[in-house]
Design brief:
The chain is an alpha/beta fold. The protein folds into 2 domains: about 1-195, no CATH class; about 205-395, Rossmann fold, CATH 3.40.50. Helices cover about 45% and strands about 10% of the residues. It contains 16 helices and 10 strands. The protein has a 4-stranded parallel beta sheet with strand order 2-1-3-5, with helices on both faces. β9, α14 (about 330-335) and β10 form a beta-alpha-beta unit. α3 (about 60-70) packs across α5 and α13 packs parallel to α14 (about 330-335). The chain is globular, with a radius of gyration of 22 Å.
Length: about 400
């Protein structure tokens, strides 16, 4: 995923003096938490405003924390939140060319493909408030931002409500970006959503191609159910990459294909029988559908249980995640009742126990090799005829 944190400028405005000034600015964004699934929105947003020099911090690492975050930690039991101190420090002190703005949005709600089918798409409150929490570590003795000549911008942003976002971001950047107008911000927000939607479509298309390859080759793949920040090598410990090295393609549930033909095939029998109202309905397994990431994890479990070529699900979560704990049992039950293999790593924290992780990966690979053909056959027999993956995979 790291390669996708690259700027994709989008033009559209003629030369203006204030835009020339903005083009000189360098904006630093900590690559943490929900930035992992919203980064393309921010790249589209800043590019539309003429700010093309956007840099992200590197993946989380112990070295990053020691060098840039030491002594600036704040009290928090959430490891992914605690890690942000290192990301802030790297952007402030570790750049060859200094940044002018450190942008760390407090994302209140998330854009989600489940919108309209769930009660809400709110972010974890601890994650939402993390920028204010971490900022305190850089103000406790002196204002590091002011000392380094950096503007700190951390607006509350309701990404699930596009009508609110222009007002929220205009208020945050008025006086920070030269000559800014509300119309510019509104257009930049629209561009941000278009950029994000295009990226999501591309990633879902890639996931579909993986599934089509699995059908064509009669090979299994693995679904990862996790929060966005577990894509960070320092948070998720590259568990999925270690498993992929054994030859098993990896799908992240955030980018599972949502093509109507595929979802209709997977879920229409349950709609017909009255168990659910739509292909994106999770009320049958999770009635309290307010948290965006939680909702998507539950839906991902349902999708994995129905897709024959997903023969294994890996659940990743960090230690003491209060939002995740109520989901452990339902997610496992949904997956295992379909006969799909289920393995969880629920204790991911600052240290990577390389030896024990290696043993568990070898165990998972063993069970995949031994059981996948039977799982594919059993799940396929339980599904309706006419799988839309089959025609495109059939030889000409």
């Amino acid at each position: 995923m790291a390669k996708w944190f690259a700027n994709r400028p989008s033009g559209g405005h003629g030369p203006r003096p204030e835009r020339a000034e903005r083009a000189k600015l360098r904006v630093g964004i900590p690559k943490v938490l929900n930035i992992w699934t919203t980064h393309q929105f921010w790249l589209g947003f800043f590019a539309s405003l003429g700010v093309s020099r956007v840099v992200f911090s590197s993946d989380t690492s112990e070295e990053q924390g020691r060098e840039f975050g030491s002594g600036r930690g704040t009290v928090d039991c959430c490891y992914p939140v605690k890690c942000i101190s290192g990301h802030y420090g790297e952007l402030i002190f570790g750049q060859k060319r200094k940044i002018d703005i450190l942008f760390s949005p407090m994302i209140y709600s998330m854009p989600s493909f489940l919108k309209g089918h769930v009660a809400d798409s709110l972010a974890c409150p601890r994650v939402m408030a993390a920028p204010e929490n971490i900022k305190a570590g850089f103000l406790k003795e002196k204002d590091v931002f002011a000392e380094q000549g950096i503007r700190y911008v951390a607006p509350l942003v309701s990404l699930a409500d596009p009508m609110q976002v222009p007002r929220q971001l205009f208020k945050a950047f008025d006086g920070v970006l030269t000559g800014l107008t509300f119309d510019e911000v509104r257009e930049a927000v629209d561009q941000g959503y278009r950029t994000l939607a295009g990226f999501d479509r591309e990633m879902r298309a890639r996931s579909r191609r993986i599934l089509e390859w699995c059908v064509r080759e009669q090979r299994p793949c693995v679904m990862v159910l996790a929060r966005p920040y577990h894509m960070d090598a320092g948070i998720g410990h590259e568990i999925e990459a270690d498993l992929q090295a054994y030859g098993y393609p990896i799908l992240w549930m955030q980018y599972f294909p949502t093509d109507p033909d595929l979802l209709d095939w997977m879920f229409n029998p349950e709609i017909r029988d009255g168990y659910i109202k739509s292909v994106l309905d999770i009320s049958d397994v999770w009635p309290s559908s307010y948290s965006a990431n939680t909702n998507e994890i539950l839906w991902g479990a349902k999708a994995a249980a129905r897709m024959p070529w997903i023969t294994c699900v890996i659940r990743l979560t960090s230690y003491e995640c209060g939002m995740d704990q109520p989901t452990f049992t339902p997610v496992q039950q949904i997956v295992e009742r379909s006969g799909t293999l289920f393995f969880s790593f629920q204790e991911l924290d600052s240290t990577k126990p390389a030896g024990s992780v290696k043993i568990r990966i070898e165990t998972i690979a063993h069970y995949l090799e031994r059981n996948s053909p039977t799982i594919i056959a059993r799940k396929l027999a339980a599904m309706p005829e006419g799988c839309p993956l089959l025609p495109s995979a059939a030889p000409a």
